[in-house]
Amino acid sequence: MPEFIIESNGAVERWTINGEARRNALSRAMVAELEQHLDRVGDSFPAVRAVVLTGAGDKAFCAGADLKERATMSEADVRGFLESLRETFQTIEKSHTVFIAAVNGAAFGGGTELALSCDLRVVAPGAEMGLTEVKLGIIPGGGGTQRLPRLIGKGPAKDLILSGRRVGAEEALRLGLANRIGGADEAMKLAQAIVENAPIAVYAAKHAIDEGLHLEMGEALMLEQRAYELVLKTEDRLEGLKAFAEKRPPVYKGR
Ligand code: COA
Fold first, then answer.
1. Judgement on whether residues 141 and 220 belong to the same structural domain of the protein
2. Domain carrying residue 59
3. Residue 172 pLDDT level (bands cut at 50, 70, 90)
4. Given the CA of residue 67, which atom of ligand 1 is nearest to it?
């Protein structure tokens, strides 16, 4: 049985974690297959420009690490798994494709970390999120201690990580953990709006935001300038100007 159900809708794909019985937990097989799909969309850019990532069923987006599999793993196995998880999440983060997590149910531990590695999070009204690892005697190991404070600030991140508490959609929105409240359809609409824009411009903006956050302002502005250089040379920039003058929607080619 495949670990993901892939549905293609032009430039948008929907990837559904196909593990409802284990609440879409992150197993080794699932992470390996995720890596293959990431390679595929990476190679196909700009054909696939947005991916909506969600979980099967209505109970969970992803219940974190597969705790049954984890119980069979040695210390070395856990270390190796975390390494591959970090790499996979970084591949999502650095991808030219925009990733939107449609958090359709529980997202705990690695499930929230997976959502954090995505560019945007659309959280269903009944869903809950949380970095609950300390309750299990561990800490977030898929980038959670680093991505959550960068996203919502150090104080709120410590509140969530040190208590291990779960937050509902409303609180996630208030904290900035969720971008919007809504179901997968809302996430698909957002993806559609993004892929109508010039592909290289979208990627250059994503890259400038993500990379610039780690830099001092002067260097960050130089990074923005370099990202602008990427779009300055594109046919799509000229098409944007032409379409504006001709009062018609632009037809972007990702060139
Ligand atoms: N790993 C492996 N299996 C998991 C799992 C996980 N992280 N989370 C749930 N499951 C399995 C359960 O063991 C159960 O399997 P079973 O039918 O063989 O007993 C099945 O999924 C359904 O779980 P259940 O708890 O009955 O479903 P629910 O819909 O009532 O609750 C959750 C879903 C996600 C809220 C709940 O399962 C949960 O809290 N899971 C643990 C999440 C967690 O602590 N993750 C952090 C990891 S660091």
1. no
2. 4-194
3. very high
4. 1
